[in-house]
Amino acid sequence: MAKKKYHPDKSSLAQETGAIFHSWNEDRYRIALIYPNTYHHGMSNLGFLSVYQLLNQRDGCLCERFFLPDNAKSDRSSQSVVPLVSLESGHLLTDFDLIAFSISFENDYLNIPTIFSLAGIPFFSVERDSSWPLVLFGGVCAFINPEPLADVVDLVAIGEAEPILPGLLDVLLHRPVKKEDCLRELVLLPGIYVPKFYSPEYAQSGEMTRLNRQGGAPAQVTRQFLTDLDQSPSRSFIQTEKTEFGHMALTEVSRGCSRGCRFCAAGFVYLPPRERSLDNLLEQVSIGLCERNRIGLVAAAVSDYANIQELQQGILDRNGQISMSSLRLDALTVAEVEILHQAGHKSVAIAPEAGSQKLRDSINKGISEEQILASVKMLADGGIKNLKLYFIIGFPGEQQEDLDAIITLTGNISAIWREAGRKRGQLGNLILSVNPFIPKPFTPFQWAGMEAEKVLKKKLRFLQSSISRIPNTRMNHESVRTAVLQTFLSRGDRRIGRLLPQLSTGENLKQTCKKSGLQLDFYVTRERAVTELFPWEVIDQGIKRLYLWQEYQRGKQGKTTSPCVPTCRRCGICSEEVNSC
């Protein structure tokens, strides 16, 4: 029987503009760039597209894309005989010199065993000698916590691609023959973590007690970041309709966030906050408008951009429309709402995160109910028809009154929204997106445990029942089981990597842990001790551990901390006593 083969999706390729095709007849270093999810998801990721562009711009390099086939999960029985091929040329993964995973979501770890199986490549790095391609792991998950994949990959890019790729490619283009020799060169580079040169030790109770190292490996790998964003464009280099944001050209406005929300990993691992200049952005906007008539502005907090009104007006002056990835409630102005309305915005998403002031102070959200309601009225009066509200449940210290406060706040928002709808003769929709709190590495809440699954499900049932009584309002929520899995993967050490092949087939997480001698609660619901050594602390994020611990204690006390100074090189390096950098 002939082997089945996943050919690249020719219809997807035909609808693209901007893809790069290099000749395979030339002696180029060949890089397979993998987004471990479907084409639809991967082509919505600005970081993935930017890395693709950077790699193909380097002389002597060739980079082609791979995605998880749409039917891969339903075709597991034939994985061993179904090879995976690149989108650009149809070459096998084994034809490449380097396999580079770009991973933004921990739950996509479960797609990696499937991809290795489709490619016929051994999953664990110890099983791959110099005849196999090197395997690299990059993306935001790599510099939040690389340890779950430490026994799978050969090297990890700790930080942003722009400062890491030049040195990495300098070594790889020399093509050291032996894998060991190559890794010994790479471990000396800034931002490159080679897991095989590190060996953790664990206490009988399960906590990591020590991280041994060899081969000249540094005690910690320092996260790398681009200091001047204007030096590297980040936009939709490839345009396609077959993705969530296919109707717009995406443009990165800034990186990092100064707000300091205590639960938000992106708010800490992308420090310091950096912005692109207005001239740089308008140049990228002009390029994007040649492909699409709508510009999608991407940042942790777009409305925090210093020249946001000038940027929005510049897009409108170029006959473009605007879409914004995030709005900060206390930074919203009437003028900005008017621009959104002019640009054709019918829906906007805002994030109160918590219903009570006590809990918003605890997470350092930095907004009051008065500000929330004022912003909602501003949006309603400004002609925005539909509103989405993001809430998180299960924060440390959450009580029933905090859940009641979500209902009360939603009712007040709904009243404002319905009144505005009656005035314009068309009632809009109010949608709540409610998801469980997931403690993340390198945040003040990294010591906290996730709330028990049964408790979270009970809270969601209560909210769902209560919200259903509010007119023109409905609630969506993430699966609690999915959230538990994400917590397990984001807080795990390298011992959990051996579970990924089983979990990728749909095996029960708790049972898989038990069979492997691991305790799910050890990773998910347990509050960590102040002195506990974390697996992810092989990374130096540039933030003092003491600063994060103090912020955790302030959160427990319901105290807020002022946003960091945007010009600060790395937040948390300065002590509270000095209060400056």
Question: What descriptive keywords fit this protein?
Answer:
581 residues, alpha/beta, Rossmann fold, pyruvate-formate lyase- activating enzyme, 2 domains, six-stranded mixed beta sheet, four-stranded parallel beta sheet, 19 strands, disordered N terminus, disordered C terminus
How would you concisely characterize the structure shown here?
The chain has 581 residues and is α/β, with parallel strands linked by helices. It is built from 20 helices and 19 strands.
What does this structure look like?
With 581 residues, the protein is α/β, with parallel strands linked by helices. It has 2 domains: 26-216, Rossmann fold, CATH 3.40.50.280; 229-556, tm_1862 like domain (pyruvate-formate lyase- activating enzyme), CATH 3.80.30. It contains 20 helices and 19 strands. It has helices spanning 10-14, 39-42, 46-57, 112-119, 140-144, 161-173, 179-186, 266-269, 278-288, 308-317, 334-342, 357-362, 369-381, 400-424, 453-467, 480-490, 500-504, 509-515, 520-524, 545-556; strands at 29-35, 61-67, 98-102, 134-138, 155-157, 192-193, 198-202, 208-213, 221-222, 249-252, 254-255, 274-275, 294-298, 321-324, 347-353, 386-393, 430-436, 473-477, 539-540. Strands 2-1-3-4-5-6 form a 6-stranded mixed β-sheet. Strands 15-16-17-18 form a 4-stranded parallel β-sheet, with helices on one face. A hairpin with a 5-residue loop joins strand 7 (198-202) and strand 8. The longest helix has 25 residues, at 400-424. Residues 1-6, 77-81 and 565-581 have low confidence and may be disordered.
